[in-house]
Amino acid sequence: MSDDTVKRFVALAAKLVKEDELVAAEGAAEAALAIAPAAHDAWVVLGTVHARKKRHERAVVCFEQAIALDPTDVASHVDLGELLLELGAYARASAALDRAMTLDPKAAHPSGRRARAIVAKTLSKLRAL
């Protein structure tokens, strides 16, 4: 199958996530990955589905795969960091968020700004202890 088919599955999966049709979105993302296991965007969408379904460990694997395919993906580093915070893997979360901020030093990307907000919120919680 073609790259175009993979892109269509990924686009469908992303659309279904926005419509909160997570079961169908998961199927579309998995179909894209069955065709092209190195489809970065499919890993991102599948990670988003797992995160929304509170399957944090599975989501972590997806975002790690997405990052392996595109180490400059600021959003995936932030999503990974946020999930790792939820799982209590603080050192790994810190590394992921730090990498996102390093990739976007001027916070020009919305995810770069989100990374900074997550760090600030976490620090505020720690100071309150």
- How much of the sequence lies in strands comes to under 5%
How many beta-strand runs?
A: 0
Shape: globular
N-to-C span:
54 Å
Structure in words:
This protein has 129 residues and is mainly alpha-helical. The protein folds into two domains: 1-70, Serine Threonine Protein Phosphatase 5, Tetratricopeptide repeat; 71-129, no CATH class. Helices cover 80% and strands 0% of the residues. Helix 6 (90-103) runs antiparallel to helix 7 (110-127). The longest helix is centred in the C-terminal third of the chain and has 18 residues, at 110-127. The mean pLDDT is 96.
Comma- or semicolon-separated keywords:
single chain; mainly alpha; Serine Threonine Protein Phosphatase 5, Tetratricopeptide repeat; 2 domains
Summarize the topology.
Layout (H helix, E strand, L loop, with lengths): L2 H16 L3 H14 L4 H13 L3 H14 L4 H14 L2 H14 L6 H18 L2
Quick take:
The chain has 129 residues and is an all-alpha fold. The protein has helices spanning 3-18, 22-35, 40-52, 56-69, 74-87, 90-103, 110-127.
